[in-house]
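Researcher: Next sequence.
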Amino acid sequence: MMFLDILFYTFIAVVFIQVIFYILFFGRFAFSKEPKKHRKNIAISVIICAKNEAENLTSFLPSVITQNYPDFEIILINDASYDHTLKVMEEFASNHDNIKIVNVENNEAFWGNKKYALTLGIKASKNDFLLFTDADCKPVSKYWIKQMSAHFSNEKTIVLGYGAYTKTKNSLLNKLIRFETLITAIYYFSFAKMGMPYMGVGRNLAYRKDAFFNAKGFVNHMNILSGDDDLFVNQVATHKNTAICISKNSFTASIPETSFNSWFQQKRRHVSTANYYKLKHKLLLGLIYISNFFFWVTGLALIIFQFNWQIVISLFILRLIVQYIVIGSSSKKLKENDLLTTLPFLDFFLMIIQLTIFINNLIAKPNYWK
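Model: Next structure:
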């Protein structure tokens, strides 16, 4: 009985922690309003690093080329591809004067390191304001550059955007991928709203060139193959210099993985960088995950043993209601409303996957970006 008592009080504590996080942290983003920004028409360099992306560039690059924006160049970085990526880039460049190609060959010191290729691309850009996306990403509107660039100011030198994944009908994996993306976005937008920005995603990220060079680029984590987006933001972002952009015309959309194993390996690479975040971010993110883990484990155990089940179920439902309200409001902002119908299942399954990734990364760390 003493063991169940411990589980019971642990459950009460983690429900309290979870509710506090959802209301005070995630609620800051969920219930905020997107401020209207005036168009600035500053010169922008759009930077796309591609490795073996011939097919995706053919499909998605036109949506960047046709952006409704008066002054932008496109820096295409061929990161030692062995398919026809370079040829595709050259074909586009021959028809558009604002495209510049940076052809990167494997360097013995930086073999397979995306950060090395990105650094060369950034150095080749002519403009002071940089906007990043991936070769498999498509801006959802022709106003992507306009919306993201509008958030730059004398003070705001970093702009965090939302990089969504396209929907696939009748696919549980697709819903799981998009749910994980949604939750990650809620986290980093909420932390930025709280004045503690800790990451962004390279599928939709902008910053000034001087912010890059003042931080000496990626030198502090060049040996870590992932993290050209989140580790850089974690290093340089502050409550004063970081803005978020969540207008629907600012989103990008990517093609998600179609097999669980491919997505699992991708997330292993992404999660591996969290070990290098600032301590305060690691502690808060760790507390969020641990409290969520114990919410499910202790709650389900107490329900199974029918220990104080009336109180347990009441608290269980309370937390789910708070979660529904906050994530529901956030998903409406980010156009992911369909995920709400399976929210408890997705939340539980994602918690299990995150635990599995953590264990796998302790055993063997991923060592490549593509």
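Model: The chain has a mean pLDDT of 93. The first strand starts at residue 44 and ends at 50.
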